[in-house]
Amino acid sequence: MRRLALVLLLVLVPLTAGAQTRTADEQAFLEVFRELVEINTTDSVGDNTRAAEAMAARLRAAGFPAADVQVLVPHPRKGNLVARLRGTGARKPLLLLAHLDVVEARREDWSFDPFKLLERDGYFYGRGTSDDKAMAAIFVDSLIRLKQAGFTPSRDLIVALTADEELASPYNGVRWLLAHHRPLIEAELVLNEGGGGEIRGGRHLVHRVQHSEKVPVSFTLEVTNRGGHSSRPTKDNAIYQLAEGLSRLARFDFPARLDDSTRLYFERSAALYSGQRADDMRAVARVPPDPDALARLSADASYNAVLRTTCVATRLEGGHATNALPQMARAVVNCRMLPDHAADDVQRALEQALASEHITVRRINPPFHAPPSPLNADLMARVERLTAEMWPGAIVVPSMGTGATDSRWLRAAGIPSYGVSGLFFSESRAHGRDERIGVRDLYAGRQFLHRLIQELATAP
């Protein structure tokens, strides 16, 4: 019996000690994060409204009046939360934006349940841990902490947690709020996802402030055929013709093009490296860029996405029966265009790369171009100072986002928006299998954003 008690003690002590390393304040934040991750907010079966209501309940319990915590619902499962901490009104509000929806995650594709927050080996795992429920939890947590501290900002602080950022749907929360409730989210500037930090070799290297982003546009590639019986195959097989075109597309690269922002990114980043990598970054930043340096940096997917428009096949289908020649083969190609790249030019380049009269290329969605936000000197200075304090040696760079965020709708509406998160990653698993965020990186991002929000809230 004594041996059993000793075994139990040895098992339980590390668990108890681990729990004690997290303060009550940190544990309270973790419960907000856990609740968000464990509410499924996918488009297929999820419920953004449930997540919005859950966060609204936490804010009301923290003392926010009901009039300042609104859940606005254009569709039963597509609710948006807009909450406000009242300030003196000396300045226009600061909007803290994060999206509640996540991309699909099937249990059979993951190593564990994607909708149960799992802490393992220094990481939090779960769908949305990095995109974008970390920021959503941080913003709710910050508002609660400021309220409980009796903090009165010089401007209103608005938290908006929105639906359908991942989809080009009529229920995209930011677009819907701009169209129907713009006064609720009107602001001098916005902090949103899209920036963040880069860890390489265990070092915190680059902290990005996103002020522009690439433009998404997708195309269908289709081959049609009269088909026939599979026992009498012909050479004009629709699947083969499409596959041959896709193989040519896989070998195609758009020309590299840099603007002032991306050139500055490589100029500053060169200081973090030595040898060939540093030389290549400086050579790419020159006008004109060195072609050999471009080729070497383009081998890295993250740099390649900054250097040029990219197009990649993301979906494929074809045929109608196992014993029939295919009458149709179709692929979807998703492109991320440089901000000044025209969709018509991209389509023409695709058609030339496919080099097949059999493949019809059609645009799926109209591109949405938004102007970049002007670089805000005060914001950049504050981000640089906080970054230097928290991650010595890391540099701050303005950046062009290679994905797409809801900042584009706000920029187009004349509201300057910036991707600033303080969340650092050594790899990106957003939209992928076993999505995760480092435990220490999450808590550091929480500290960074809370400090930045306080500073921006009291700035003269």
Structural features:
single chain; 460 residues; alpha/beta; Aminopeptidase; Alpha-Beta Plaits; 4-stranded mixed beta sheet; 15 helices; globular
Short description:
The protein is α/β, with parallel strands linked by helices and 460 residues long.
Number of helices: 15
Low-confidence stretches: 1-20
Report the strand count.
19
Q: What would the CATH topology of the largest domain be? A: Aminopeptidase
Helical content class: 25-40%
State which percent range the strand residues make up: 15-25%
**What strand order characterises the main sheet?**
1-2-6-3-7-17
Q: Name the CATH superfamily classification of the largest domain.
A: Zn peptidases
Structural class: alpha/beta
Shape assignment:
globular
CATH architecture of the largest domain: 3-Layer(aba) Sandwich
Structural domain tally: 2
In the CATH scheme, the class of the largest domain would be Alpha Beta
Radius of gyration based on Cα positions: 24 Å
Describe the largest sheet: 6 strands, mixed
User: How much is the average pLDDT?
Assistant: 93
Quaternary arrangement of the chains shown? single chain
The end-to-end distance, rounded to whole angstroms, is 67 Å
